[in-house]
Here is the input.
Amino acid sequence: MSNSLKINIVTIPEEGLSFVLSEDGEWFKGCVQERDYPDFSLQKFDVNCRISIISSTVFIKGNLSVLLNVYCSRCLENANLSAAGDFAYTLIPAKNETEKERELNAEDLEIGYYDGEFVDLTPLICEQIILQIPIKALCREECKGLCPQCGANLNTASCNCQRGFVNERMAVLKDFKVKN
Ligand SMILES: [Zn+2]
Ligand SMILES: [Zn+2]
Here is the structure.
């Protein structure tokens, strides 16, 4: 991992530390193995968060927004997509944890660890970027997709295909008599 956003916890003031980062897709590529490069393109992302510390527990709260370039899963057109979400992490010193406690905390995704005096924001930011990637990307919510018969993009064109086959199947279902 080439990216490193390590913050020395000693430098976190009592009132907290504000952290802002704007980067592009190249930065994100440093987070993932080459073979795991996702099939979308991250244009840019913005992170805005606040880091505070109470005794030795570090709290990170913020917001991440992404601008993605994706292929719509309905019409296959290229489209820009923006998404955003809030996040919160609680990081505790790794050395204070027993193996048992670690196992219990592993189920709580918002609890993490830091080693020594440094908190690394890189894995948290990468995780948040991944969480904003839609499983099925759409160019827009109401995308009409492609005609299943002729392949025309129904957002921009119309075609003369009969779209009766779905209704025919429904008609077959209607012929079944349901016993009461
Ligand atoms: Zn679409
Ligand atoms: Zn058609």
Q: What stands out?
A: DSSP finds four helices and seven strands in the chain. Residues 6-143 form one domain.
